[in-house]
Design a protein that fits this description.
Number of domains: 3
Distance between the termini: 74 Å
Strand content: 35-45%
Oligomer: single chain
Shape: elongated
Helix content: 25-40%
Length: 462
């Protein structure tokens, strides 16, 4: 491949990726996919069984194959962000930043004929009585904060023009946000853990698994992180321990608030941070944020050897779990107490098949604690119930760039509201006259008033 071909490919790349149409198209697709990702629950945050429970196994498998169970960490979402980033960078350096010099550029020098064609202009007589000259006009303009210069028998003055920097400043803000997004994408992560009181969890990379597993340490777990396919981050080695968790109720018995007392321990089990969190009041430590997500009674079950903690619902006086298999058929898991009231509840899990628009339920069998049963192609296991606190965690290393980026964007928007005012003056020695004219790219009415006031002052100061 010769230099000419390389140059052509380079030019084609620059032209394509600096296209405004491409940017608009990418923004539309990104907005749609972001909306979809916001509406659909994220598998790392709710677990696979919760999605199966909501959509059914067949729809869940379809959504998972399309990357819709974790949109913000899918390869195609990463590809969209990367393409948009390249487009913004190329467009900024090719179309936006090179035009910033216009803000500092002097207007072109105009001849007398061109000045007379300006939107507003006038002619003033030069004689010994009025003592009018270019120096006097320059002095008046400088008092009005114009920059002015005289070249032979002509004058050029300019005020403003900073609004030409608006687009550049805005793009600096967008690129700052883009850098922050890239840092968070390549090094950030999120996930969820469901932990009992006096238990803890470590963050771990468990590959494609979204289910927490037991650690080698007693009463501790490994909580899987969700990350991008291309990831350069580092997993913190901290142990997050649940010291205590409880629920505050209204007088009616309805839940009012969930609380969890958390400690973050180092590798020697020294306490690095401690806080009692509740909804919208997370624990923040060294870039790791832990939020209170949910709280309640959970059943530990397995579905085709995939373990999960599933919230138990109270329905018509029964403690149940509903798992849809398709649009018309599902399974109801009913917790039945067989021991004394003061012992662990839900010692037996009864299984029923349920049908859409039908009250008929067919008993399929039952599972004792720590046992499994086979129902057709499904293998269902039951391992008891307990009270769990649901904790969401995330690391967003590029988040600190959000505020500088927004600051630049807002400044760029305000700067763009300005205007550039330009005034020219030229002496016609033959007719003993001075021709003055001006123009403004915005707020023309205000500029015309300012121009007329300038002429009035020049005439009155004869």
């Amino acid at each position: 491949m010769n230099k000419k071909n390389i140059h052509q490919i380079k030019q084609l790349f620059i032209e394509e990726f600096s296209s405004v149409k491409l940017a608009i198209t990418l923004f539309i697709f990104l907005a749609i996919t972001t909306l979809i990702g916001t509406i659909l629950p994220e598998e790392p945050m709710v677990g696979s069984l919760e999605l199966i429970k909501r959509y059914g196994r067949q729809k869940y498998l379809i959504l998972k194959s399309l990357g819709l169970t974790d949109v913000f960490h899918s390869w195609w979402y990463l590809a969209l962000l990367t393409t948009l980033g390249i487009n913004l960078i190329v467009a900024s350096f090719k179309r936006v930043f090179p035009r910033a010099y216009i803000a500092f550029q002097w207007p072109m020098e105009l001849r007398e004929e061109s000045i007379k064609k300006l939107p507003i202009n006038c002619e003033l007589d030069l004689n010994d009585k009025n003592n009018l000259n270019l120096n006097k006009i320059e002095s008046s303009l400088r008092k009005k904060r114009y920059k002015a210069k005289i070249n032979n028998k002509s004058l050029i003055a300019v005020k403003g023009g900073w609004h030409r920097l608006g687009a550049s400043v805005t793009h600096v803000g967008i690129l700052t946000l883009l850098i922050g997004c890239a840092v968070s994408t390549l090094t950030g992560f999120n996930g969820m853990a469901q932990i009992s009181e006096n238990e803890g969890f470590y963050l771990a990379d468990l590959g494609q698994s979204t289910t927490q597993i037991k650690s080698t340490e007693e009463r501790n777990w490994l909580a899987p992180i969700s990350k991008m396919p291309i990831w350069l981050g580092k997993i913190p080695p901290y142990l997050v321990n649940v010291n205590k968790t409880w629920r505050e109720d209204y007088e009616t018995g309805q839940p009012k608030q969930w609380y969890t007392d958390l400690s973050i321990l180092d590798q020697n089990k020294n306490v690095l941070a401690r806080k009692t969190i509740h909804v919208n009041d997370p624990l923040e430590f060294m870039g790791l944020d832990i939020y209170q997500s949910n709280w309640g009674k959970f059943a530990q079950i397995s579905f085709n050897s995939e373990n999960a903690s599933v919230p138990v619902e109270t329905f018509m006086g029964e403690e149940v779990i509903f798992l849809p298999l398709s649009d018309d058929i599902g399974i109801k898991l009913k917790l039945v107490q067989t021991q004394d009231q003061n012992t662990n509840q839900g010692d037996v899990l009864e299984l029923y098949s349920i049908f859409k628009d039908s009250p008929i339920q067919k008993f399929l069998g039952k599972v004792n604690v720590n046992q499994k049963t086979q129902i057709g192609p499904m293998n269902i296991g039951y391992f008891g119930t307990n009270i769990l606190t649901g904790l969401q965690f995330k690391s967003n290393p590029g988040g600190f760039l959000i505020y500088p980026g927004l600051f630049f964007i807002i400044c760029g928007v305000f700067i763009a509201f300005g205007s550039k005012k330009q005034i020219w003056a030229s002496i016609n020695a033959e007719n003993n006259k001075i021709i003055i004219g001006g123009n403004s790219d915005r707020a023309k009415g205000k500029f015309f008033e300012e121009f007329e006031k300038l002429i009035s002052e020049l005439i009155q100061n004869k």
